[in-house]
Amino acid sequence: MSQSEPTIGTTTAQPASGTPLRGWRHGSTWTYLVMLIASAVALIVSFVLSAETLQMARHPGEKLGCDVNGVVSCTTVAQSWQAEIIHFGNMSFPNAFFGIAAESVFVTIAVIGLARVAVPRWFALCTWLGGLAALAYAYWLFTQSMYVIHALCPWCLALMFSTTIQFMALSHATVSVQGLPGADSKAGAGLRKYYRLSFDLMVDVLWIVVLVAMILLQYGAVLF
To answer: Where is the composition biased (Polar residues) (predicted)?
Structure first.
């Protein structure tokens, strides 16, 4: 018997972690569609924030249309140093300009995922790290707005929430579609079980609830 012929009665067991995640919720269509919608919302919000920045530059001293009171005030947030943290010499650049660039990339990546185009593992990893960086940046701006500037920008909050959902969908796609980390690793097996048992739904809902609770606990009396 040659080595290429199978041995009768012998089977090769596949580890549970190596079984593909099944179901519409784990496929590229759903995960990347959610990512596309969230990224598109974030991109639109970035355009709006950029337009408001230009409006302030053209009409100094005027209040923006989304100013409601002393706390819910886009103008207060836009006039803070945190709104322009990138500087080159004497020039500063609004964060919203970089948001347009970043979210355009995430929209493109989501479209690539929906088209089921195969990408290298290093590309999928870099994409996830980029999403993590965008989330960390959004949360830094959120905490600065909440606890340092003491003002809330409705558009900034929309950007923060859309970036959060974008990262949730990207993380799901990275595990269930891109297969990272590897299924033979403990981290990979644990993450696949996490999504297979739908623990992510509970965590994601709790995640959003915590963010909303933070806002309400800090400024609930003013918002209502």
So the answer is: 1-17
Residues across the chain: 224
Q: How far apart, in whole angstroms, are the C-alpha atoms of residue 181 and residue 119? A: 15
Domain that holds residue 113: 23-223
Half-sphere exposure of 78 (CA within 13 A, CB side): 28
Is position 138 within any domain?
yes
Q: Where are the alpha helices (DSSP H) in 59-153?
A: 74-78, 95-114, 121-144
Q: Report the alpha-carbon distance of residue 40 to residue 97 in Å, rounded.
A: 15
Report d(CA 177, CA 31) in Å as an integer: 9
CATH number at residue 53: 1.20.1440.130
pLDDT tens per residue across span 129-171: 999 999 999 999 999 999 999 999 999 999 999 999 999 999 9
Domain membership flag for residue 12: no
* Maximum distance among all Cα pairs of the chain, rounded to whole angstroms: 88
Domain count, the chain: 1
